[in-house]
Amino acid sequence: MYEFLTQVFTNNSILEKLTAPTGLILSLITVVVSYLIFRESTPDEGDIEEPEHPEMLVLSDYTLEQLKAFDGSGPTKLIFIGICGKVYDVSEKTQFYGPEGPYASFAGSDATMSLAKNSTTREYIPKDGDEAPDLSILSDKEREALDGWISFFDKKYQVVGKIVY
Ligand code: HEM
């Protein structure tokens, strides 16, 4: 036995013979394991899942007339408000902007001037065909109030499009 072992470790050709099958077995095991792992991570046809996409957001252009459809009274119950050209989706707050809410006049409208002038009536709501609100007529205080509302809406609501005049 001792003689054999000495031969194994001194004679290269015997060592090669012994290690060659071991290498082969190891290679086979690697191939089989890789195949099993690969098979595991590749779903069979039929159970391929749809790729997950984040919810798609389509930004649209709205004329004042088109915006009117989004006052919460339509079948979709969507409520959009335009402020300084941006259209926000405020549908989640029907208690404020719904038909019975205190700020219903903003719903489906351009509320820029109303917010600047702290008005909840329709006095400053532009009508179809009107020009874009002229911000240069606002006092510093009104402009400040408007900027405050813009950052409020930017933080709280999703922008869904822009107003085209
Ligand atoms: C007597 C006067 C008013 C009272 C007592 C009042 C009260 C309130 C209250 C309690 C809120 C909710 C605040 C919160 O959720 O933390 C609110 C929100 C609001 N108010 Fe007034 N308000 C008054 C006048 C006005 C006026 C004149 C405007 C016109 C610019 C206005 C515009 C708004 C808007 C845009 C909101 C935000 C609603 C949202 O969360 O989207 N309010 N108000």
TrEMBL record:
Entry's Gene Ontology cellular component terms: endoplasmic reticulum; membrane
Keywords: Endoplasmic reticulum, Heme, Iron, Metal-binding
Location in or out of the cell: Endoplasmic reticulum
Domain of life, per lineage: Eukaryota
Domain Cytochrome b5 heme-binding: 62-164
GO molecular function ontology, one term from the record: heme binding
Family: Belongs to the cytochrome b5 family. MAPR subfamily.
Name of the protein this chain belongs to: Cytochrome regulator dap1
